[in-house]
Amino acid sequence: MRGPGGLKEGDGMQQDASLQPELALRIGLAARELPELDVSQLVRVLTALLGAPLTAEKLAGVTPRGLRDAGGAHHLEAVQQAPAARLEAACRALHGEEAATDPVPEPESGPSPEGAIRVACASNTGEELDGHFGACTRFLIYDVAATGCRLADVRPVAEAVSGSGTRRDDRIGARVALIADCQVLYCCSIGGPAAAKVVNAGVFPMKRDVGGAAGGHMKELSAALAKRPPPWLAKLMAGRSAAAPAS
């Protein structure tokens, strides 16, 4: 019997149980680079791509393009839409290479700027805006006002998603809950159903295809607040002012 994506139910399950410890570790580390994909799904994809049994030699030949194509063939968005950097990191793990250190930025201490809005940035690397909403590894949380901006928090996705079950809707819901205190979301891409959930949570999604330094985008947003905000931002600020309690 075949399950979703054309993968036969049980494909990879026996592989998972019989994998050598070193190969199991490689696949587990690779799965960590693709937060929306669990280990058993990755085993099944690799088995379909490489054939059974999985070996170190076979894993050494996996490329980001091959992994993306295999995920697309089985309708797994977690692989198909994963950022290139995540696929490259997953392949390095499958090859047995040591992972490069990804420095996690430190939130800035001190009070938030007066009248600030809270903005979530989907990120995979350092303080870069380079993440797909449904596949990024962390959200950088900024407080942004006309007078400046600061990095208020860094929220890893893995822990929040790991307790949300295996259904995609549950995992997307966990991501939305992680940024529910924000008014704006910046990301490189986001699917339609996920965008609807974000909007329903009161968060305005903004796509930035090019990405780049998140801090730079936040400074641009701060400058827009100080001058003439675009209509969507003016509406957001008006709603925020109306919701604020009278002093």
From TrEMBL:
Q: What is this protein called?
A: Dinitrogenase iron-molybdenum cofactor biosynthesis
Which segments constitute the Dinitrogenase iron-molybdenum cofactor biosynthesis domain?
A: 126-220
- Source domain of life is Bacteria
Q: Which UniProt keywords apply?
A: Nitrogen fixation
Q: Where is the Dinitrogenase iron-molybdenum cofactor N-terminal domain?
A: 19-106
Q: List the Pfam families.
A: DIMCO_N, Nitro_FeMo-Co
| UniProt keyword annotation of Nuclease present | no
Q: Which family does it belong to?
A: Belongs to the NifX/NifY family.
Please give the organism: Halorhodospira halophila (strain DSM 244 / SL1)
Positions the record marks as coiled coil are none
Q: Does the keyword tRNA-binding apply?
A: no
